[in-house]
Amino acid sequence: MRLYDDVIRTWQGLMGSCHVSELEKKEDWQDGGKSNMVLRSDAAYELGAAAEKIYAIGSTVMTEDEDLVSSDGIYVVGKDLSDIDRDCSYARLAVVLVDGEKMGEGDRLYNSIRDISYARYHVEPEGFMMRVSSSAGRESARVSKSAVKGGISFAHVGGMMLRAFHEKKHVRAVKLFFITDPDFDYEALKKSVKKAEDITAAIDHIFKDLKMDCNACNLKQVCDEVEGLRELHFGQSQSDSNFLTAESKAVTSDI
User: Fold this and answer.
1) Nearest-CA neighbor of 181 among 78, 83, 92?
2) CA 32 – CA 36 distance, rounded (Å)
3) Residue 79 burial (CB < 10 Å; 0-12/13-18/19+)?
4) What percentage of residues in the chain have a pLDDT greater than 90?
5) Is residue 246 part of a domain?
6) What is the CATH number for 107?
7) Residue 40 in contact with residue 49, Cβ under 8 Å?
8) Could you report the per-residue pLDDT of 91-133, keeping only the tens digit for each?
9) Does 126 map to a domain?
């Protein structure tokens, strides 16, 4: 599982010239549960508000490379939650170290990737309402006035996210990055996140359409660029061919 490693290195490069603060996770914030709702009238601000020139980015990628993720960590680029006083651009990135054997192969691999990615849907910090639109490719969060007054921070949100990720048996460690810096290169980040999404889509495509014509596939470029995807594809094709051959022999022997 090194398919996303180049994307991770791109993120590292984008943050290389930024001031990155590491936070110690906190676990003393209340879970708002499924009823966690923050109305616009109750909000102090919105991270990734739907407005011109405001970005709302969220992404979770995986690796087996311990040099990229050696232990859990929560990092902030820009202001923390209690220091923000207006709507601003926002990005939430998770880099997850996984156990490759437990991730599996084929459909199991794709389902494992999605299972880890969906961990975000099980995190509901009181007064921090995440809003995810897969169709629009946006992930934002609305923060209540009471939460800001109570001292909410990314250390609280990150702590709850780490707990949710570690409920997945495939996960060994997670680095979480929260970005609110107005000068960050969100446009470049958005492009790299799109590439990560294309990689996941290609994995799904490979195992759903084994007879696909690579030259006609709209994901051909990402397969050509990402080391391991073509091998994954042709390895699966060979596996399918072997299965069909064995099945044919079994049918013949029954005649």
Assistant:
1) 78
2) 5
3) middle
4) 66
5) no
6) 3.30.1650.10
7) no
8) 999 999 999 999 988 778 889 999 999 998 889 999 999 999 8
9) yes
Number of domains in the chain: 1
Question: Does 157 fall in a domain?
Answer: yes
Domain interval for residue 13 = 5-184
Contact 15, 177 (CB under 8 A): yes
CA angle 89, 90, 91 (to 5 degrees): 140
Q: Write the CA distances from 46 to 54, 63, 67, 237, integer angstroms.
A: 10, 31, 34, 46
Q: Is residue 217 part of a domain?
A: no
* Long-range CB contacts for residues 148-152, cutoff 8 Å, separation at least 24: 148/44, 148/81, 148/82, 148/84, 151/82, 152/29, 152/81, 152/82, 152/125, 152/127, 152/128
